[in-house]
Amino acid sequence: MGTVSFAKRVAGKPTAQQGITVQVLSLAWPVVVEQMLGTAVGLVNTYIVGHLGAAALAAVGLASQLVMLLSAFFSAAGVGGTVLVARSVGAGEQREAEAFAGQSLLLALAIGVLAALPCLFWGGGMLRALGGAPDVVAPGRLYLLAVGTTMPLMALLYVGNATIRGAGDTRTPMVIMTVVNLVNAVLSWGLVYGVGPLPALGVLGAGIGAAAGSAVGGVLVARALLREQGAGGLRVSWAGFRPDAARTWRLLRVGLPSGAEQGLMRLAQVVMASVVTGLGTAAYAGHQLGIQLLSVAFTPGFAFSVATTTLVGQELGRGSPRRAAACTMTASWLALAVMCGGGVAAFFLAEPLVRFFTSDPGVIAQGAIAVRGCAFIQPSLAWYFVLSGALRGAGDTGYVLLAQALPIWLVRLPLSWLLGIAAGLALPGIWAAMILDMSVRALMLGVRFRNGAWQRIRV
Description:
Layout: H1 3-11, H2 20-50, H3 54-71, H4 75-90, H5 94-121, H6 123-129, H7 134-148, H8 151-166, H9 171-193, H10 203-226, H11 245-277, H12 281-317, H13 321-348, H14 350-357, H15 361-376, H16 378-393, H17 397-422, H18 426-451
């Protein structure tokens, strides 16, 4: 596809001719489905493993925290790819968009190899450092070994999908995540319990299922971008994988703050996990159930965030900052309405939701507390997601890093210890600290968005 036809395709996308609400929703709904499917990977494993007991549930939960910490650095390539591809698409520059897509994938593979090493060689030690009991560390180490083997392909899946979304195609990632989820569900169920000819491997089986799903997803993303009619109108040639220092630096300049942001957030979550493990295995397992269900509540917020990042990047590429701001506000109100509705439902259905995943009375009691905390965090979470997405789309990733790191380290962690441990409020105190942290983040991002400096950032 030539540059002229590419420009026509971009111009043919819904812009001024279509209402902003329709434009936001058309990008957001496939991301909702995609993220629900991605979240379902964790939920399916939680459901399957939860019936093995509290120790198995805690093992998968603690190991997953470490996987999320390591995979946070994929954001350096993912956000950089989304922003620069979106800007190039908005400006009608096909070759630049495809070149940035290729460099994003190359960078993803390199980061994925580095992220695999701790899982493969130091998993047990990391789990012990977080306070995991011996009956948690042993199966958790096996889970990390399995997931670590396909970490480079997991990076390709994450970054490739982010790049495709930057081109305005949110449906291809949705289809890919459908396949990922099916592979994970079938293999995890079969290998955890030994269905048919498959051996019963317990927690290791869940790790193999998650690893296989990521591997298949990574291959599908690469195939989508390398084929003749590439995803999102992008076709990455094999020559696009040739290292390009200038473009790689531009990707990192935009993406590194997001990688640091995600890394600091995941590290804080790991520190939080070590605080919660001090309350006992049942409390940690219940807290982990709350986190898993919170990840479901993240889904619409993340979807509107992705839509906003793409639209802001494309509109700024077209030289339309006012429309970029209008898209952001529309997405904010839509996210608020959807997430508050979900929060109300979670509050009243907390106990039945937890019972679906486990029959352990102690875990049920603690999990219900965590789910109700999840309900109260929804309003600030909605604003946080959309405003951070808008600022990332503009390339203002440094400030998003600041708004993420300061509250989580200066508000959430100290208050979690003070309220949860020192004051003896246990899990309610920890979730109160999380709610306050998210409120501060949303306020910081709101002030930044309102001053309008993001509209003039060059990437």
